[in-house]
Amino acid sequence: MGTTVAGRPGAGRRAFGPRGHRGVTALELLVVVGILAILAAVGMPALLGLLERSRLDAGASELVGALRRAQALAVSEGGYFRVHFRLDANVGCPNSHCYRIECNTQGGSCNNSLGWPGLTDTKATHPGVVTDWVDLFTQYRGVTVDPTRKWTDPPGKCDGNTINWITYNSRGAFVDPSAAAPACIPVKNLSGATRTVVAQYARGARVQ
Prior knowledge:
This protein is α+β, with helices and mostly antiparallel strands. Helices cover 27% and strands 22% of the residues. Strand 7 and strand 8 form a beta hairpin.
């Protein structure tokens, strides 16, 4: 006759196997998919708007960087440097004003004795071409640069005469005779939001 040991650990307990897992039903899956679709529909416009604003800010900042670079080069090289704006399919800019940095000085790294370069000149054909044409429309997907204009009185109105370039002298001053006042360059995205880049008389450019 067999005996049992009283108080043995686990005595009297039943061994159970792992519990079974119930699968996800088709209805539950459809509910989850529907919720995700609703969340995506609600959040997508906000996400797209955020991306557009980010591209607009990046494009405006890049233009500010070009203006500041031209100003710094004019001071360091002791000559004339400008940011040239152009809406022209011949230079690959049919949708928005492109821009590039050019120089007109016979000293320093520019060493240009030929005058300002022509539209189709390149760095390989003319010493006055400092950078290639920059097209924000393709670089930042739909960001456009409007014509550069003079500020007019009262201050804050960007509706003066259109100018094609912003030129800096060896003191870093904005010296275009047709634009004695600071200039403004509107930068826009596809939704119509605008950032205005301001080229000031003797200070660095900024986004207003």
